[in-house]
Amino acid sequence: MAAAGLNMVEAITCALARALADDPDVLLLGQDIGRKGGVFQATAGLHERFGADRVRDTPLAETMISGLAIGMATQGLRPVAEIQFLGFLYPCLDNLANHASRLRTRTRGRLTCPLVVRTTHGGGVHAPEHHSEAIESMLAHVPGLRTVIPSTPARAYGLLLAAIRDPDPVVFLEPTRLYRATREDVADDGVALPLDRCHVEREGSDLTLVAWGAALYEAREAAATLAVEGISAEIVDVQTIAPFDAATVIASVERTGRCVIVHEGARRAGFGAEIAAEIAERALTSLLAPVERVTGYDTVMPLPRLERAYLPTTERVVEACRRAYLYR
């Protein structure tokens, strides 16, 4: 069955409903996710449809939410925990890094931890402090923890289903400014998209644009601008930050010879640096120009009046692509 014209938050609701209907072990928990439907309405209507036992409101206590989810996961349930904003994930890191990510190794495979932690990602919606972080590189550094970031409604649907069905812990980062930015037809067929794979969204021959989450918006606009100038840009949507599908990016760079990486997080030790290192190690002789990075800055995400000055813009991406293309 196709659901026509869903935005990303509606696609996420659709995926959660499908998971709850298909698997009695799936349950949702988080602050205000029940009767109120969550701060962004991602769980709207699910409390009424599936009941309070399956869609559970919790106190404002992120450490408790993550710890409770881990306990549930070890006992055969598949909890999906919502943390309202990524800046509130820090209290969960002890549980995620020291327990959820290690259970398979710690118990020699006797226990796994099939939980999903959903939260927002990035800026662009005029939010206050602690609401606009992009700290995916911090999460990617934790072995045993998957980090997934969708960029379209259909990919959000398929990747969230895959995350819920995965036997290991997944942090599912939902780009806040994409929640209601676009609409597309989403097939509510229960089909999951593969994790741990990049998606080549647009083929090109002159350079590779690598991005994820909301930064795909600027990458797409930049590719359209460059096309008018006769520059053919290939777009690679990373989707799963960790484990990272380096092979797809390397194959693209070997074809195009140039690479521009775009992300919202701070430049220093951002995940773009890891991608650039992989390219240097595995595709150096294919490069016709240095790898360019267009990122946020090494500062705290500013308050709303200045957030557009922090986020990568289409103009910055186009300029980086021109430098790479014209490099001699």
Describe what you observe in this structure.
A 7-stranded mixed beta sheet has the order 3-2-4-5-7-6-12, sandwiched between helices. With 328 residues, it is of the alpha/beta class. It folds into 2 domains: 2-187, Thiamin diphosphate (ThDP)-binding fold, Pyr/PP domains (Rossmann fold, 3-Layer(aba) Sandwich); 199-326, 3-Layer(aba) Sandwich (Rossmann fold), CATH 3.40.50.920. Helix 1 runs parallel beside helix 7, helix 8 (215-228) crosses helix 12 and helix 9 packs across helix 10. The chain contains 12 helices and 14 strands. Strand 10, helix 8 (215-228) and strand 11 (233-237) form a beta-alpha-beta unit.
Itemize the secondary structure elements and their pairings.
Layout lengths: L1 E5 L1 H15 L3 E5 L15 H5 L4 E3 L4 H13 L3 E5 L10 H6 L4 H4 L9 E6 L14 H5 L5 E3 L4 H13 L4 E6 L8 E4 L11 E4 L4 E5 L3 H14 L4 E5 L2 E3 L3 H11 L2 E8 L4 H12 L9 E5 L10 H4 L3 H13 L2
Parallel strand pairs: 2-3, 2-4, 4-5, 5-7, 6-7, 10-11, 10-13, 13-14
Antiparallel strand pairs: 1-8, 6-12, 9-11
Helix pairs in contact: 1-7, 8-12, 9-10
